[in-house]
C-alpha cells in the first residue's frame, strides 16, 4: 500500500471510532429514512452509549447502528447507515462490501427472518428502500454464530423496527438539490413517466407484453399493422422536462393500547414516498486484444448520458403485543422501487473505429415490488426456559418491461453532414429497433425459525446462568421463474435511411407500420425464453454458551444445513428442459470466546465454517443483452463457496462513551466466486460472466475507536472523534476455467505465466471517520454537527482475459456534513451536504496488460462519471 494512504489511515485511527451502536428509543423525533423494519419487545437501550455497552458484553462480535446515530449523521437509508461500521463500504449500484468482499458474501435478515432480494442483480434488497422512522436498530454480525444462516462470509445484517415506548405521531418533509442534476433543462424521461401514473409506478402496466403473445410460447409471431398500432400501449417518445428538486414525505404513528392488567398492544403505521432526479455523464468504453503481436485496443469508445427518475415507496403496518414474558409481533412491509432510465450513447462500438457517429438509446423501466408478511413470537416459560418462533411469506417481483432500444447515427444520409440537436439517421431492419421484456417472478418464498432456550446451573450473584443451551431450526424456500423475451422491428424490403427526431419517433413509426415499411415480430429464443429456479434451505443448530465465571464467555455452535437447489433451463436450440440439481449437506461449526481481562479490556477469538451462495444473475441461465454489446451471461454451473473464518480481537473501553479495538482476521474461501469481463466468443462485444476460483486467502487488520477530545483540552469536551479502518491483503489461486479464460494463447509458446492477483472485489483498505460536535441551547435542546468521511482502496471490478489486465474500481473519497437540531419540543430540522468533494467515480483497465496498448485518445477508462454535491433539508414535526 502506498505510504500516503497508510498515513491517512493512521491520522484517522488516532481516535478510531466504532459505529457499532444499538438503540431502541424515543429518538423518533430525529429520524429520516432507512432500510429495515421490525417490531420487537420494548427496550430502553436507545443511545449510542447503550449500544456500545451491549457490544462490550456480548460474546459474539456484533455491531449495531442506533437510531440516535442514524439521525445524527443524516443517514437517510439503511445502506448509508451500515457504511458507518468498520470495514463496510457501499459501491455504486452494487450494494454493500464488507471487509472488501462483494455483496454476494452478505445476507439479510428482517426481524430474524430470511429475506430474498427484490432484484436479480443484487444479493440482498437495496437497503436504501426502508424508512428510517421505523428502524430501531441495525445489527451487523461479522463473525458467524450457528443460529445465523450458513450463507455468511462478509456479514449478516439484521434490521429491527422501532420499539414503541410511548405514543407519537410524526410528519416529515425533505427537499434536496443536486449541483449536477437539479433544475437541468431537457431532462429526459419516458413519455408520461413524470405524471401521476409514473409517480405511483402504474406506468409499468402499459409496458407489459402484448395480449397476443403474453401467455403463449414464442413462435416468431408477426403482429398485424392494427395490432402493432394498438397492442403496444407505451410510446417510443420521451419527454424533455426540467428536473425538479428531490423530495420525500413521510408519516409515522405509533400508539399503545392497554390490554388487561399487565399487557399492552403497540400499533405502528408508516407511509413514505420519495422521488429523485439523477443525471450522469461520462465514458462507456470496452477493450480487447487480438493476440500476440497486436495491441490492447478499444472495442467501444462511447460517451454515455444517463437520466434517472426514481420513485421509492414504502408502507409498514406493525402490531406488537407484550404481557410479562409474552411477546407477539405481526408486521406487513411493502416496498416499491420504480426507476425510469433514459440512456444515450455516442461514439463507436464493436471495433467499428471508422463509424464514430453511432448513436443508440435505451428507454428502460426497472420495477421491483416486495411484500413481506411476518409473525414472530417469544414466550418466557420461567427463568430457565424460553421459546421463540417466527414465519414470513414474501411476494417478490422484478420487471424490466418493454425495454426499448433504438440505434442510428448522426450523419445526414442526403448531405453527409453531421446532424445536430435530437436528429439521427436510421433505417429499419437489423437490430435497430428492439423491445425486451424481463420478468423475475416469485412463485413462493417462505421463511421460518423456531428456538428453545434452556439455562442450567445456579446464577448466584451473577446476572446470567453459567450454562445456556439453545436448540433451533431456521430455513427458507425460494421458487422463482424468469421470462426473457424479445420483439424486433422488421422490414419486408430493403429500407432506405431516413432522419427522425429521436425524442419523438412514434409518429414516424406509426406511419411506417400503416404502410408496411415496418412490422413487429417476436424473436425470442424458444428454447431459452424462460427458466425456473428452486432453492430449499433447511438448517438445524445447537449452541452451548458457557460462562464459568465473570471473565470467561464461551459460545460453541454446530449447524447442519441442507441445500437443495434445482435449475430448469434449456441450452440454446435444445427442445427440452434439463434439470441441473445441486444438492449438498453442510456441517458448519463455530466457536466464539470472550475473555474479560478487566472491566475495561476484552480479548476475543472466533472460528467458523460457512458457505456463500451466488447472486441470482450469476447463476441465471440467460444472456442479458445490452445495446452496447456488453452482455451478462449467467453460469448455472457455478458452485457455492465454502469459507473458513478466523478473528482475534482486543477491545479497550476507557469510559462508557469511548473505545478502541484491534481485530486481526483471516479467511480461506474455497471456490470463491468472481466476476470476469472478456471479449465475446462471437468476436463482437464483451461478456460479463462468473467463475469459481480454486481458492482465495485473505488476511487483514481492523482498527476502530471513539475518542472524546475533552481528553486533549477541556475546551474540546463537546467534540468526539471517531474513525475506523480495515487494511487487507488477498491472494487468489485460479481455477482451470479461469486459467482458460485469462491465459493468452501464446503463453504456450513463450512460457509466460499469469501474474498473481487479489480477490475480485476485495479492497486493500477502507476508512471511515467522523468528527462530532454537540451542544445544548438555553432551552436544553440538542444540536449536533457532524463531519463524516469515507473511502475504500482500488479493487478489482472484474478480471480480464486474452491479454488484458484486470479492471479496477478506483477510490472514491466522500465527505458529508450533517446538522441535526431540535428547534422546539415538536419541531426538528436536519441539514446535510453530501459528497462535498464531488469526486469522479472511475473504473479503469489496469496498466499491466500482457500486450502493448493503443487506446483511443490515450483513454484507459472503462466507465466514469460525477455524482454532484447534494444539499438536503429535512423538517419534521412530532406530536
From TrEMBL:
It comes from the Bacteria. Pfam families: Plug. GO terms for cellular component: cell outer membrane. Signal peptide: none annotated. Gene3D superfamilies: TonB-dependent receptor, beta-barrel domain (2.40.170.20), TonB-dependent receptor, plug domain (2.170.130.10). Residues 58-153 form the TonB-dependent receptor plug domain. Its main location: membrane. It is found in: Cell outer membrane. Keywords: Cell outer membrane, Membrane, Receptor. SUPFAM superfamilies: Porins. The keyword Transmembrane does not apply. InterPro entries: Beta-barrel_TonB_sf, Plug_dom, Plug_dom_sf. This is TonB-dependent Receptor Plug Domain.
Amino acid at each position: 500500500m502506498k505510504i500516503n494512504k497508510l498515513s491517512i489511515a493512521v491520522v484517522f485511527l488516532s481516535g478510531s471510532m466504532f459505529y457499532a451502536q444499538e438503540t431502541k428509543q424515543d429518538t423518533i423525533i430525529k429520524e429520516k429514512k432507512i432500510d429495515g423494519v421490525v417490531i420487537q419487545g420494548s427496550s430502553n437501550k436507545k443511545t449510542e452509549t447503550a449500544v456500545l455497552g451491549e457490544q462490550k458484553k456480548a460474546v459474539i462480535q456484533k455491531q449495531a447502528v442506533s437510531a440516535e446515530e442514524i439521525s445524527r449523521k443524516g443517514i437517510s437509508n439503511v445502506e448509508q447507515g451500515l457504511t458507518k461500521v468498520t470495514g463496510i463500504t457501499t459501491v455504486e449500484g452494487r450494494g454493500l462490501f464488507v471487509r472488501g468482499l462483494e455483496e454476494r458474501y452478505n445476507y439479510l435478515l428482517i426481524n430474524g427472518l430470511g429475506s430474498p432480494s427484490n432484484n436479480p442483480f443484487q444479493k440482498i434488497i437495496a437497503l436504501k428502500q426502508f424508512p428510517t422512522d421505523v428502524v430501531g436498530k441495525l445489527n451487523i454480525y461479522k463473525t458467524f454464530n450457528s443460529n445465523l444462516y450458513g450463507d455468511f462470509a462478509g456479514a449478516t445484517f439484521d434490521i429491527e423496527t422501532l420499539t414503541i415506548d410511548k405514543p407519537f405521531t410524526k410528519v416529515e418533509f425533505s427537499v434536496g438539490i443536486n449541483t449536477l442534476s437539479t433544475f437541468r433543462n431537457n431532462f429526459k424521461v419516458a413519455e408520461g413517466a413524470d405524471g401521476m401514473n409514473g409517480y405511483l409506478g402504474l406506468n409499468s402496466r402499459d409496458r407489459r407484453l402484448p395480449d397476443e403473445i403474453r401467455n403463449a410460447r414464442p413462435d416468431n409471431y408477426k403482429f398485424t399493422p392494427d395490432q402493432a398500432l394498438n397492442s403496444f400501449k407505451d410510446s417510443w417518445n420521451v419527454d424533455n422536462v426540467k428536473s425538479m428538486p428531490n423530495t420525500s414525505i413521510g408519516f409515522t404513528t405509533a400508539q399503545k393500547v392497554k390490554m388487561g392488567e399487565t399487557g399492552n398492544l403497540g400499533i405502528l403505521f408508516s407511509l413514505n414516498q420519495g422521488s429523485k432526479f439523477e443525471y450522469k455523464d461520462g465514458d462507456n468504453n470496452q477493450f480487447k486484444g487480438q493476440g500476440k503481436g497486436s495491441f490492447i485496443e478499444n472495442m467501444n469508445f462511447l460517451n454515455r448520458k444517463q437520466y434517472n427518475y426514481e420513485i421509492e415507496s414504502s408502507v409498514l403496518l406493525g402490531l406488537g403485543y407484550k404481557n410479562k414474558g409474552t411477546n407477539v409481533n405481526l408486521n406487513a412491509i411493502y416496498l416499491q422501487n420504480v426507476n425510469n432510465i433514459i440512456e444515450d450513447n455516442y461514439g463507436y462500438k464493436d471495433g467499428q473505429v471508422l463509424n464514430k457517429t453511432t448513436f443508440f438509446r435505451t428507454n428502460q423501466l426497472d420495477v421491483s415490488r416486495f411484500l413481506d408478511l411476518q409473525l414472530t413470537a417469544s414466550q418466557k416459560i420461567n427463568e430457565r426456559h424460553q421459546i421463540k418462533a417466527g414465519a414470513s411469506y414474501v411476494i417478490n417481483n422484478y420487471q424490466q418491461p418493454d425495454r426499448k432500444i433504438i440505434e442510428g447515427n448522426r450523419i445526414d444520409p442526403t448531405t453527409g453532414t453531421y446532424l445536430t440537436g435530437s436528429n439521427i439517421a436510421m433505417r429499419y431492419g437489423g437490430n435497430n429497433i428492439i423491445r425486451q421484456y424481463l420478468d423475475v417472478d416469485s412463485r413462493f418464498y417462505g421463511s421460518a425459525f423456531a428456538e428453545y432456550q434452556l439455562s442450567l446451573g445456579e446464577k448466584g450473584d451473577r446476572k446470567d446462568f453459567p450454562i445456556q443451551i439453545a436448540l433451533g431450526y431456521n430455513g427458507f424456500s425460494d421458487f422463482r421463474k424468469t421470462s426473457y423475451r424479445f420483439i424486433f422491428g422488421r422490414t419486408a424490403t430493403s429500407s432506405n435511411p431516413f432522419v427522425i427526431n429521436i425524442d419523438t419517433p412514434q409518429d414516424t413509426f406509426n406511419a411506417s407500420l400503416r404502410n408496411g415499411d415496418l412490422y413487429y415480430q417476436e424473436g425470442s429464443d424458444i428454447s431459452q425464453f424462460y427458466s425456473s429456479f428452486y432453492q430449499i434451505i433447511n438448517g438445524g443448530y445447537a449452541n452451548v454458551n458457557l460462562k464459568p465465571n465473570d471473565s470467561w464467555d464461551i459460545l460453541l455452535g454446530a449447524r447442519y444445513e441442507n441445500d437443495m437447489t434445482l435449475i430448469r433451463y434449456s441450452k440454446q436450440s435444445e427442445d427440452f428442459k434439463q434439470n441441473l440439481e445441486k444438492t449438498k449437506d453442510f456441517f458448519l461449526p463455530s466457536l466464539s470466546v470472550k475473555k474479560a481481562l478487566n472491566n475495561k479490556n476484552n480479548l476475543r477469538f472466533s472460528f467458523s465454517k460457512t458457505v456463500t451462495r451466488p447472486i441470482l444473475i450469476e447463476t441465471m441461465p440467460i444472456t442479458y443483452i445490452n445495446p452496447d454489446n456488453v452482455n451478462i451471461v449467467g453460469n448455472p454451473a457455478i458452485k457455492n463457496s465454502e469459507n473458513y473464518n478466523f478473528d482475534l480481537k482486543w477491545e479497550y473501553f476507557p469510559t462508557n462513551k469511548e473505545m478502541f479495538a484491534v481485530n486481526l482476521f483471516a479467511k480461506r474461501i474455497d471456490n470463491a466466486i468472481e466476476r470476469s469481463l472478456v471479449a465475446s466468443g462471437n468476436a463482437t462485444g464483451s461478456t460479463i460472466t462468473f467463475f469459481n476460483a480454486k481458492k482465495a486467502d485473505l488476511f487483514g487488520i481492523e482498527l476502530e475507536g471513539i475518542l472524546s477530545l475533552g481528553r486533549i483540552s477541556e475546551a474540546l469536551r463537546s467534540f468526539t472523534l471517531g474513525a475506523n479502518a480495515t487494511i487487507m491483503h488477498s491472494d487468489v489461486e485460479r481455477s482451470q476455467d479461469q486459467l482458460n479464460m485469462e491465459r493468452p494463447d501464446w503463453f504456450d509458446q513463450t512460457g509466460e505465466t499469469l501474474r498473481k492477483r487479489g480477490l475480485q472485489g476485495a479492497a486493500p483498505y477502507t476508512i471511515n471517520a467522523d468528527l462530532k460536535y454537540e451542544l445544548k441551547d438555553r432551552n436544553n435542546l440538542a444540536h449536533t454537527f457532524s463531519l463524516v468521511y469515507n473511502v475504500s482502496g482500488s479493487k478489482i471490478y472484474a478480471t480480464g482475459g486474452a491479454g488484458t489486465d484486470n479492471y479496477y474500481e478506483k477510490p472514491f473519497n466522500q465527505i458529508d456534513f450533517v446538522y441535526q437540531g431540535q428547534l422546539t419540543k415538536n419541531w426538528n430540522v436536519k441539514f446535510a451536504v453530501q459528497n462535498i468533494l464531488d469526486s469522479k467515480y472511475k473504473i479503469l483497465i489496469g496498466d499491466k496488460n500482457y500486450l502493448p496498448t493503443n487506446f483511443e485518445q490515450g483513454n484507459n477508462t472503462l466507465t466514469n462519471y460525477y455524482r454532484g454535491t447534494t444539499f438536503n433539508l429535512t423538517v419534521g414535526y412530532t406530536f
